[in-house]
Write a structure and sequence with these properties.
Strand content: under 5%
Oligomer: single chain
Distance between the termini: 65 Å
Low-confidence stretches: none
Number of strands: 0
Largest sheet: none
């Protein structure tokens, strides 16, 4: 009887807990939200898509600015005196100042 009780409790616990969940109460019932007429998932999906689009465009702009900087610095290069530090070290100091 004790074994049956503990086995039943284990089976029920395994049924209640889904893989990856910490607490069964954290489950979201999306069918109930749709039936209530709320939904809202389309708005969240649209906001997520627009946020992703803006992140990609921001990354594109940063890449374009880095490319423009490299192009301009290549165009305006000139011989450095031997007493000055190298061009590479100058760019390394710029990268460290930016915080990369």
């Amino acid at each position: 009887e004790l074994f049956e009780h503990s086995e039943k409790a284990r089976v029920r616990r395994d049924q209640d807990m889904l893989v990856g969940e910490l607490v069964p109460a954290e489950r979201s019932d999306y069918g109930a939200a749709e039936a209530a007429g709320g939904g809202g998932t389309e708005v969240k999906a649209a906001a997520s898509d627009s946020g992703r689009y803006l992140r990609f465009k921001l990354a594109d702009a940063a890449l374009a600015l880095a490319g423009l900087y490299a192009y301009k610095s290549w165009e305006k290069r000139k011989p450095l005196p031997s007493l000055m530090y190298s061009r590479g070290l100058r760019h390394l100091h710029l990268i460290m100042a930016v915080g990369i």
